Amino acid sequence: MGIFGPKYRVSRFVDHEIDDAVLTVTEPDTAKIERPLRRNIFSVYWIVGVLTLMILGGRAFSLTVLQGAKYQEASTRNSLRALVIPAPRGTIFDRFGKPLVYNVPSIDLIATASDLPTSEEERTALKERLMSFGIERSFLDQTFDSLPPKSIQAVPIKEQITQEEALRFLGQRENYPGINLYKTTHREYIDSTIFAHLMGYEGKIKPEELKDHPDYLLTDSIGKQGIEKSYEKALRGQHGYQQAEVDSLGRVTRELGIINPVAGNDLILNIDMDLQKKIYDSLIVNLEKNNLKKAAAVAIDPRNGAVRAVVSLPSFDNNLFAKGITQDEYSVLANDEARPLFNRALTGEYPPGSTIKPVVAAAALSEGVIDENQEIESRGGIQVGSFFFGDWKAHGFTDIRRAIAVSSDVYFYSVGGGYGGINGLGIERMKKYENLFGYGEYSGIDFPSEGNGFVPTPEWKKERIGERWYIGDDYNSSIGQGYITATPLQVVNSIATIANGGTLYEPRIGSQIKSQDGKVTSVESKIVRQGFIKPEILKVVQEGMRETVTEGTAQPLKDLPVEVAGKTGTAQFGGDNKTHGWFVSYAPYSSPELALIVLIEGQGTEETYNAVPVTKEVYQWYFTREGER
Q1: How far apart are CA 309 and CA 198, in angstroms?
Q2: What is the extent of the structural domain holding 414?
Q3: Which of 148, 491, 594, 601 is deepest in the core (most CB within 10 A)?
């Protein structure tokens, strides 16, 4: 018996028995067990497989090797961004540390081209939703169409949105693909109408301005006018950056690191804030009293060329520009006949009238045309052929000091053009000295724009007007009329040169630039020229200007707490007996620390010196106020 019992037997020939069974199976049964594959089908499958692998391998090679860098860059760009953190602009202070402007936090809506929808239908829907923020469709069309499709540079689409608008955007952010909020600041100017022409304003950079400022972004602000523009490089800070991961809509999903921004340098001006306010207020009162609108004033320290005040009326609110002026608001200013946007103090060019006489007097003494004691009689005018050149009154005999004090036109006709045995200077020599005192050339002030005035020549008249130069042209030029023009800044700078003994400075509004780490850089007033007039000659002219106050045309200033020297002037323009009234002066007479010019446009008659009472009021306040001057 085997181990399995008597019913079972294990055969040694099992394999052979199986083989025999297979060999004896019928053909139909064989077909059920196995169906042979055709050789040609096998070949097709093999070829298709090989081709598929080759195509997939080639595509993988192209993507990873040939175009790998491109797609890696695109992937990184779409997921990693260096988000700008704008730097605060530097603050501007007056000479005593009083701020003239603040930075105010604000939020802009910005668009990033690479994150915007690509289909026209989705873009149209996005624009319609953005119009709920008060953005015009035409602006959105123009902005979106101008954006480079793959650019990741942000472009502002609405500045300084309200808090309500910001919250509404955040609550519906998924409906605004490619649109984000941009935290920045804008300028808030203090006493904006008083300082508008001086400070200027800043605003968002325009695409056309990027040509001159390639390192700026379209979200950046830039100084557009005034001190904001001339000191743009110093006031602008260095942006910081936030490295972050963003999703397909441009939303930050993870912060990776921050480089903090560096605020711009602070700027300390030579401007005296309270003096500027006083001049402005005094001019406003005088203009309203006399039903006038236009005036200008400039104050300078004769000792160093430091500009203490710059006023131009009418003025405007520069905060309108800083906040984003509307077209209607701008049209009101631009179409105003009084031209409130025009800086009369620094760019206005006017006939200087008799304020030029101290310079002509210095020229006549220097050239030996007359000496300080020579007298000339004024009977009310001079006759040359059929032409009569009048004086504003008959002054009798005057020497050069009294001629300055009473503003004798006949005296200056004689020394300028020649009369009664006196060989006058002539226009060439008058021009020489006027140029030396700063007439007819830019002063070099640290301001983005100024007028350069004009001193004529016979050649200019022949070429421009087609006439030769007559002696009457010399007469008109000698009293600051005819073709000669000057800015208020040029006139006061020429008188400051006389006051300080003969040094012509480049006027300076800026005083110091202070970095955030405390480093201070001084802004120095450069000397243009000096020593071109003998001190004894300037002394005679100074004495004549002092007599203007003690015995001449500006006697209302005699009772001031300090001695003042000055020169009145009028210049006719247009019809209806309208004149521009000037008064230029300096004080104290013996040790000048302030030179001031006041110009009133369009006063009624030559005898109405509206500029004198304004000057008196300013000096009375300035030299009696408490504290440092």
Answers
A1: 9
A2: 275-319+343-513+521-622
A3: 491
Q: What are phi and psi of 236, to 5 degrees?
A: -75, 135
pLDDT, tens digit (0-9, with 9 covering 90-100), for 472-526: 999 999 999 999 999 999 999 999 999 999 999 999 999 999 999 999 999 988 9
User: Is residue 595 within 8 Å of 303, Cβ to Cβ?
Assistant: no
Residue 72: inside a domain: no
448 φ, ψ to 5°? -70, -15
Q: 43: exposed, middle or buried (C-beta count within 10 Å: 0-12, 13-18, 19+)?
A: exposed
Distance between CA 77 and CA 88 in Å, rounded? 27
**At residue 441, what is the residue type?**
E
Neighbours of 422 (CB within 10 A): 18
Asked if residue 400 is part of any domain, the answer here is: yes
List CB contacts of 323: < 8 A, sequence separation 6 or more. Answer: 160, 186
Burial grade of 111 (CB within 10 A; 0-12, 13-18, 19 or more): buried
Q: Are residues 279 and 260 in the same domain?
A: no
Which residues fall within 8 angstroms of residue 592, CB to CB, at 6 or more apart? 302, 303, 496, 499, 500, 586
Q: What is the pTM of this model?
A: 0.84
DSSP state of 585: E
DSSP secondary structure of 437-469: TTTTS----SSS-----B---HHHHHHHTS---
